[in-house]
Design goal:
The structure holds two protein chains of two kinds. By secondary structure, chain A is mainly β. In chain A, 0% of the residues lie in helices and 49% in strands. In chain A, strands 2, 4, 5, 6, 9, 12 and 13 form a seven-stranded mixed β-sheet that branches. In chain A, strands 1-3-8-7 form a four-stranded antiparallel β-sheet, with no helix packed on it. A two-stranded antiparallel ribbon of chain A has the order 10-11. The radius of gyration of chain A is 15 Å and the shape is globular. The termini of chain A are far apart. Chain B is mainly β. Chain B is 4% helix and 49% strand. In chain B, the strands form three sheets. In chain B, strands 2, 5, 6, 10, 11 and 12 form a six-stranded mixed β-sheet that branches. Chain B has a four-stranded antiparallel β-sheet with strand order 3-9-8-7, with no helix packed on it. In chain B, strand 7 and strand 8 form a beta hairpin. The chains are: A mainly beta, B mainly beta. At the A-B interface, strand 4, strand 5, strand 9 and strand 12 of A face strand 5, strand 6 and helix 1 of B.
Chain lengths: 125, 118
C-alpha cells in the first residue's frame, strides 16, 4: 500500500530537549516536504527536498533542520524545541513536477497529488 | 507569489442538502488545483485535482469541483451532504511554471470546517 508514515503520532516534550520526527514513504517519490498546520493559517511549508542530499528552506524554517540521506526518509529535527513550535506536523511526498538538470529546467512534467502522513501532534511545554 | 483564499472558516449544511466550499486562488500562470480533506485525528486525504481539460472535475466520496478561470475560483461541491462529510477541507494550488520548489510546493488555504447536521 502506498503510504507516508510518520512517527510518533503524538509527542509532548519540554523546551530545549532535542527531538526527531521521522517520515518514510514507499512510493519512490523524489519530492518530500514538511508542513506545520496551525488554526486559521492552513499548512505552511517548513523544509523541502527535491531529491537525495538536496534540501532547502520553505516558508517557516526557523528552529528546524532536515536531512535526506535516502530517498525514502526525510526526518524533521528540532534541535531546541520551543513552545511556539507546538503544532500539528505533516510530512508529504510526491513525484517532482518540475525537473531541473544542471540549472536548466526540463519540460514541465506530470503533476501528481501529494501524499500526506497522518500527522504528528507536538506539544512543547 | 501564489496564494489561496478560503473565505469561510465554517460551513453548516443540513444532511441531504447540497454543499459548497469556496476557494479562490492567485497564480501567475495556469494553476494546478487540489482539494484535500482532513478527518479528525487523521492526515490529509486527496479528494480531487484540476490540471487541464474539463472544468468540472469529479473526485472521491461524490465530491466535485468547478474550475472557473475568469473568477479564479475552484469551489468544492456535493449534491447531497452526509453527516460523515463533516471534516476540515483544504484547497491548494501549485504553479507548475515556477522552477524548483515553487513549482512543486503546494500553497494551502486556511481551511474550511464543514459541519453537516442530521
Amino acid at each position: 500500500e502506498a503510504q507516508v508514515t510518520q512517527n510518533p503520532r503524538y509527542l509532548i516534550t519540554v523546551t530545549g530537549k532535542k527531538l526527531t520526527v521521522t517520515c518514510s514513504q514507499n512510493m519512490n517519490h523524489e519530492y518530500m516536504s514538511w508542513y506545520r498546520q496551525d488554526p486559521g493559517l492552513g499548512l505552511r511549508q517548513i523544509y523541502y527536498s527535491m531529491n537525495v542530499e538536496v534540501t532547502d528552506k520553505g516558508d517557516v524554517p526557523e528552529g528546524y533542520k532536515v536531512s535526506r540521506k535516502e530517498k525514502r526518509n526525510f526526518p524533521l529535527i528540532l534541535e531546541s524545541p520551543s513552545p511556539n513550535q507546538t503544532s500539528l506536523y505533516f510530512c508529504a511526498s510526491s513525484l517532482t513536477a518540475i525537473r531541473t538538470w544542471e540549472g536548466r529546467a526540463v519540460r514541465p512534467g506530470r503533476s501528481t497529488e501529494a501524499f500526506f502522513g497522518q500527522g504528528t501532534r507536538l506539544t512543547v511545554v | 507569489a501564489q496564494s489561496v483564499a478560503q473565505p469561510e472558516d465554517q460551513v453548516n449544511v443540513a444532511e441531504g442538502n447540497p454543499l459548497t466550499v469556496k476557494c479562490t486562488y492567485s497564480v501567475s500562470g495556469n494553476p494546478y488545483l487540489f482539494w484535500y480533506v482532513q478527518y479528525p485525528n487523521r492526515g490529509l486525504q486527496f479528494l480531487l485535482k484540476y490540471i487541464t481539460g474539463d472544468n468540472l472535475v469529479k473526485g472521491s466520496y461524490g465530491f466535485e469541483a468547478e474550475f472557473n478561470k475568469s473568477q479564479t475560483s475552484f469551489h468544492l461541491k456535493k449534491p447531497s451532504a452526509l453527516v460523515s462529510d463533516s471534516a476540515l477541507y483544504f484547497c491548494a494550488v501549485r504553479d507548475p511554471r515556477n522552477w524548483g520548489n515553487a513549482g512543486n510546493m503546494l500553497t494551502f488555504g486556511g481551511g474550511t470546517r464543514l459541519m453537516v447536521k442530521p
